[in-house]
């Protein structure tokens, strides 16, 4: 979403908040009851609460000092299928039989194991033994809601995996397709209105820039090259987290710059983007976005414009900042706080 339409979307959040909160509370209660009823599931900790639990318990804090593979499945956003085992299996065996791709159509799915030593659910890893397994497919994302075909593909892949590791998936443990698809559509319809992506364009006031010059200016502000040509990122403070900001120039011009074709690598515009749901509000990503836009405009002699081609005013910046504070509060009230594991997955 670009800056020119951000205020309209964020204003709609207020109207949806009460209905969404009631729906989400009901779904959360149902998910908790379903999890409690499943054998062995009382040890499952939703991924969304993992960080909070680690901060609250001294033992967990100590364990966080070393790299750990944290569970990702969350009953609020995943359709979960338990995979019972007659005896523990090794991580090597489980990994050897994983489906070639962990996607069902456009939806990602995950398989986790209950470590026999730690008693915690984790991403499968060699050198570990697992007494139980579970798989879950994400019910919504920016590609839309999980549909019948995607859910069927997920179930088929999990059944094949279970058979390969010497067990089977009981039909009673597989959530009903119609119910899952209905939940997915409801989740998508309500949470998609909470998604926000802020993008502005910096347009040269005078001569065009070389890609190298844009990179040089951005580097002084802390940006580093991304994985895609023409993409520069401002890294987040948290290791492994998505970038705080993304600055992008035309990819073809960036490739031309790599091939020493300076004329073809000239650009007159670049875009600066903030993915609102990817970074905690405490990290102050919006002020960082505003500062970066202002500094880049000064250094590059550029004008900051919205998706309608109009210059972005101080009043517009202030209005967006106020609306984002409300959006952050709404997300947090729904256990989808910006920067949380669930929010990053849903809004990506």
Structure notes:
Helices cover 42% and strands 21% of the residues. By secondary structure, it is of the alpha+beta class. It folds into two domains: 46-192, Cell Division Protein Zipa, Chain: A (2-Layer Sandwich), CATH 3.30.1400; 195-346, ZipA, C-terminal FtsZ-binding domain (Cell Division Protein Zipa, Chain: A), CATH 3.30.1400.10. It has a six-stranded antiparallel sheet with strand order 10-11-12-14-8-15, covered by helices on one side. Strands 1, 2, 3, 4 and 5 form a five-stranded antiparallel sheet that branches. It has a two-stranded antiparallel ribbon with strand order 6-7. A hairpin with a 5-residue loop joins strand 3 (107-115) and strand 4. The chain is elongated and about 70 Å long. 36% of the residues are buried.
The largest sheet has its strands arranged as 10-11-12-14-8-15
CATH superfamily caption of the largest domain: ZipA, C-terminal FtsZ-binding domain
- Percentage of residues in DSSP E strands: 15-25%
| Continuous helix count | 11
How helical, in percent, are the residues?
A: 40-55%
Q: How many angstroms separate the termini?
A: 13 Å
CATH class of the largest domain: Alpha Beta
Principal-axis shape: elongated
Uncertain segments: 11-23, 29-70
- Total strands: the figure is 15
Overall structural class, as computed from helix and strand content, comes to alpha+beta
Taking all Cα atoms into account, the compactness measure Rg is 23 Å
